[in-house]
Structures are given as structure tokens and as C-alpha cells.
């Protein structure tokens, strides 16, 4: 029940010691402020990491070949393994039910690309239509490679925005021909990539055209896959691990590689890679929680010490209350009310200041691995619970001490 006299006592006690109450409140407010800012920073790190993995298709698995390191079936170690169309076709057929997107890739790291008087050295790749999704690129003009281009060995190419700016300046490149290592290709599209200029300095062409135009036969550099989506991360991780083990076993068997040779077939699993970053981010956020809570505890200790002083100052008053029949619970309640009131008001001030800072300053702080620091409703609710709990803990021990004071001893206090 609301007791106006109790609140009058609290405000009267606070007004008598304004500076002491203010400094105590500052210590609590700063603890909450630091905790929320640190949690917001942790969320900013998580957002940044998630954004980086959005730059490529989620769950992408890349496969490539290297040299053998073990002797197997009479074949010496050190053999260069060359992946071919048959490796890609066999893999795609065996794991067809698990694969959502797929492409083989043939990469040429440096090619002389020219248009008119302009030229430059750029990377070009033979790919399939799904590669646009796998790279998470966006067509900003024209179109990307399609199945007809592959089937008919069309000499067409999609160029990155950086290539377009270097070679064509302000001209529209669609329909114009460029020379790629002295072979004419018609530009059918311009793409942009969220990962930036490095990816936009590439050129993509049909895999079949690339192999035929540059005498590669059926050779490929590697393969890329995206698996069917799962309901949660743990299922996706288990699926990707099973797939990577299966495809390595398949390719080792086909290319006569020792089953225990871990170097001949290289596999990059972005789902597993993401787990490492998420685990690191979790440890960072737990550390932030620890630092913030320790700061709050320091503030709570300050409040508790102040309440001990208050109890000492009001010893005679407490003795009179008990002599007149006040119960221990009413004494404890009186001290707790003041403690909780001070910590809650100060904590709300710190919480509000931190949320305003994150709201207005947070969006301005952007980097590759740090984006939009924020605190969600659940965290704000948790800090509110911490505030009330901290106030109760700060006042409990002084209140318990006050409740144990004997009236005859309190009345003799000077």
C-alpha cells in the first residue's frame, strides 16, 4: 500500500544530504551506463560479423584441388590434382538432394582487358548462372549469364562496376565488345558486389566458353555449393560437415588419392568459419557483461556504505520507533525503500543516457566489423531487473543491522 509519510521521510533524508546522494547516484548511473554501452558495442560487433557473412551466400562451400602428400596405390606423393567437369558433374549428381545452388569455376587471375584506347589487368572467371547468387552480387545494368549462354558457348561477359568505370567511363557498356586476352566478348551486364572494389574488378563469362576459348579442355579451378536451408544453425552446421566429408571422400576416390591425405582436396566451409566468429563474439559479450556488472557492484557497494551511514545517523530515531512498537519488518522496509529509490532513479538516468548515446551516435560509428550498436528490449529489461536487485542488495544489510538495534541501546546513542 502507498504510504505518503514514508515517501516524505525518504525525500527529507535525501534533501538533508544532497551532495552525498548525488555522488552515490552518479556511481550507480555510471555502472549502468557502462554496462549498456558495452552491451551495445557487443551487439555492434555481432552485426558487423553477420554483415560480412551476408556479403557471400550463407552456407557457401568451396572446393579446390592441390598436391598429394601421401603415396597411394603405387603413385608418388606430390602429384598435382586437376579437377575436371566430370568431378563437378559427379558431385552435383550424388548430392543433388542436398544442394540448392551450384557452380563450377575456372579462374584466370590476370587478364588483359581492353576497350578502345582503355585497358587494364583484371581477373576473369568461367562460371554458371548460379554464381551470381553465390557471390551475392547484384546486376545493375543488363543481365547475368544464363543457361543458353552455357549451352551455345556464347562469347558474352558480365563485368564488375570497377571494370565498367575504368574502361567505359560514362558510356553504357551493354552490347559493346571488349577484348579479354585478345578474344572478343560482348558485354551483357554490369554487376556490383557488397564486398567492394576487389570483387567488382572481375569479369564473369560462361564456363563452356571460357574452356573452349582458352584451350582449357574440361579443366576447372574449383566448385562452389550452397546447401538447402535448415531450420537452425546447429542443423546447418551438421549438414555442412557431412557434405564436406562426403565430397572429399568422393573426389579422393575418383582421383586416386589416399583416404588420409588431407591436403590434396581443399574445402572451405563458411558455416564452420562463421561458428568461430560467433563463438569469439560470444566470449567478448560475456566479458562486457562481466565488466559492466563489476562496475554496478562497485556502485552498489557505495550505496550500501551510504545506507550504513544513514542507519548510524538515525540510530536514536530507529530506537524510538522500536520502543513505540515498530516491527523489524517496518524498519527494514524503511531503509530498503530509500536504497531502492536512489539506485533505481540513478540507474534509470544512466540507462536513458546510454540508450540515447547509442541511438544518436551509434549509427555514425561504422566499420567493416562493427555496425549499428544497439540494445534490444530483452537487454533493457534485464538491466531494469538488475537495478531493482542492486537497490535491494545495497539496502538489505544496513536495514538488517538497523532492525537488530535494541531500543535501550539506541536511546542512549548520542
From TrEMBL:
Residues 292-407 form the ABC3 transporter permease C-terminal domain. InterPro entries: ABC3_permease_C, MacB_PCD, Macrolide_Exporter_MacB. Keywords: Cell membrane, Membrane, Transmembrane, Transmembrane helix. It is found in: Cell membrane. The chain crosses the membrane at residues 21-42, 287-311, 331-357, 377-397. It is a multi-pass membrane protein. It comes from the Bacteria. Residues 21-239 form the MacB-like periplasmic core domain. It holds the Pfam family FtsX. Belongs to the ABC-4 integral membrane protein family. This is ABC transporter permease. It comes from Flavobacterium calami.
Amino acid at each position: 500500500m502507498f504510504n505518503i509519510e514514508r515517501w516524505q521521510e525518504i525525500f527529507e533524508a535525501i534533501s538533508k544530504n544532497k551532495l552525498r546522494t548525488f555522488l552515490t547516484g552518479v556511481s550507480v548511473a555510471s555502472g549502468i551506463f557502462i554496462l549498456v554501452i558495452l552491451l551495445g558495442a557487443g551487439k555492434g560487433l555481432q552485426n558487423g560479423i553477420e554483415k560480412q557473412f551476408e556479403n557471400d551466400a550463407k552456407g557457401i562451400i568451396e572446393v579446390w584441388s592441390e598436391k598429394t602428400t601421401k603415396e597411394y596405390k603405387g603413385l608418388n606423393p606430390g602429384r598435382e590434382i586437376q579437377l575436371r567437369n566430370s568431378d563437378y558433374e559427379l558431385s552435383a549428381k550424388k548430392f543433388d538432394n542436398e544442394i540448392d545452388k551450384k557452380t563450377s569455376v575456372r579462374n584466370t587471375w590476370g587478364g588483359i582487358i581492353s576497350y578502345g584506347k582503355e585497358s587494364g589487368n583484371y581477373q576473369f572467371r568461367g562460371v554458371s548462372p548460379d554464381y551470381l547468387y553465390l557471390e551475392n552480387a547484384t546486376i545493375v545494368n543488363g543481365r547475368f549469364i544464363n543457361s543458353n549462354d552455357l549451352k551455345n558457348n556464347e562469347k558474352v561477359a558480365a563485368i564488375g562496376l570497377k571494370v565498367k568505370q575504368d574502361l567505359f567511363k560514362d558510356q553504357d557498356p551493354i552490347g559493346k565488345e571488349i577484348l579479354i586476352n585478345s578474344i572478343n566478348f560482348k558485354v551483357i551486364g554490369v554487376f556490383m558486389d557488397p564486398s567492394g572494389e576487389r570483387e567488382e574488378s572481375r569479369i564473369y563469362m560462361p564456363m563452356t566458353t571460357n574452356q573452349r576459348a582458352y584451350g582449357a579442355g574440361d579443366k576447372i579451378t574449383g566448385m562452389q555449393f550452397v546447401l538447402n536451408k535448415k531450420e537452425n544453425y546447429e542443423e546447418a552446421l551438421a549438414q555442412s560437415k557431412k557434405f564436406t566429408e562426403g565430397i572429399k571422400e568422393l573426389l579422393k576416390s575418383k582421383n586416386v588419392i589416399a583416404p588420409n591425405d588431407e591436403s590434396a582436396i581443399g574445402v572451405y566451409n563458411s558455416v564452420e568459419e562463421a561458428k568461430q566468429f560467433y563463438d569469439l563474439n560470444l566470449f567478448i559479450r560475456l566479458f562486457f557483461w562481466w565488466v559492466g556488472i563489476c562496475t554496478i557492484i562497485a556502485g552498489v557497494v557505495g550505496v550500501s556504505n551510504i545506507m550504513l551511514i544513514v542507519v548510524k545517523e538515525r540510530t536514536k530515531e530507529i530506537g524510538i520507533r522500536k520502543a513505540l512498537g515498530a516491527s523489524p519488518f517496518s524498519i527494514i522496509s524503511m531503509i530498503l525503500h530509500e536504497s531502492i529509490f536512489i539506485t533505481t532513479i540513478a540507474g534509470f538516468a544512466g540507462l536513458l543516457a546510454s540508450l540515447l548515446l547509442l541511438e544518436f551516435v551509434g549509427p555514425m560509428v561504422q566499420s567493416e566489423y562493427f555496425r549499428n550498436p544497439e540494445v534490444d528490449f530483452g537487454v533493457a529489461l534485464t538491466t531494469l531487473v538488475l537495478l531493482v536487485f542492486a537497490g535491494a542488495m545495497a539496502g538489505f544489510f544496513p536495514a538488517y543491522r538497523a532492525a537488530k538495534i535494541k531500543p535501550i541501546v539506541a536511546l542512549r546513542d548520542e
